[in-house]
Queue: 2 jobs
Job 1
Amino acid sequence: MATSPVHKGWLRDIHNGRLAAVYNGTEVFDFDANDLDVAVAAIFSADVKFELTITAGADGVGADGEQLTSGGAAAECDWAAAACLREYKNVQGERTDAQEVLSQIIATPVYDFQYKSKAESDEHVISTGDLTTTYTGIMADEAPWATHYKGRILNPINTFGYTVLAIKALNEKIAKLETMVS
């Protein structure tokens, strides 16, 4: 079936008895006449169940704890996770600026907030999807060290790393106070 390179949506192929889903001119998947009969029967019986495996990226499927991520429309999906094993990292050196990090954390304002709905923004809304919970957290522009993906997403690895450094700085202060008291 010939389509325009910008076509998005359903395309009916009468000659071959198929219905195809098309995105930017590329057929993503299709149903033939038998598939359509099964789908219609399932919909009308109100018992629809799909069993499938999503494969993405060079290594196929993800593992426990990984999330399927996308770089946007028509981008290939891949599996990602915040790995902790040294073997997955190019270590650049140990951080020893715990006091400076503690100062950054202390200077960072903390707010109560709820995420905006899609209707409240002209841009793509990035959130947890839970619009009713009141969260307590930071703002990216006031704590860029706690974000990634161009400062739009909370970076759990940096956030935890900075927290550990701040605890080390507090522990050092406590140890000094204890030696002064004894």
Job 2
Amino acid sequence: MKTPYLIQRAKFGDNDFKKGIDSIISLDYMGSSEFEFGAIPESLRNIRSRINEYTYLDVPLGNKVISVFCKDEQKSEIMSYLKELSENTIHLKEHSDFHTYINPSKHDLEWQAKRPHNTDFWWDLDNDIMFWKKNPEFEMKFKSIISIKPL
């Protein structure tokens, strides 16, 4: 697995007026051109072209559980991958907000008391991996649309 650089943040959402994955997540504006010029659709094409090689994992991390959608060949590395992201030891193009969800500092907790944590879903565009806060309802929606190509 490559060291990630582009991790797209997103929020769960019911966007019935949209199709495909955009109907269940709202992507954050990342602020860098690397996210704007085709990395997202390219990653989605990569995933869909190898969809039979993908699996779902529930990974306990601290007192949280993260659901992961990754290739079978990536399973053995997922725990260390998520741990590194949660410790904020990987240099990313833009902050992922993952470490503040898994290991919030006292300042993060004070900030989140005023403004609840905003990111539910992360998409590693370099490794074609998606992961999210454990949520069975979201996972059912995700499973129903991930392999369906939009019209």
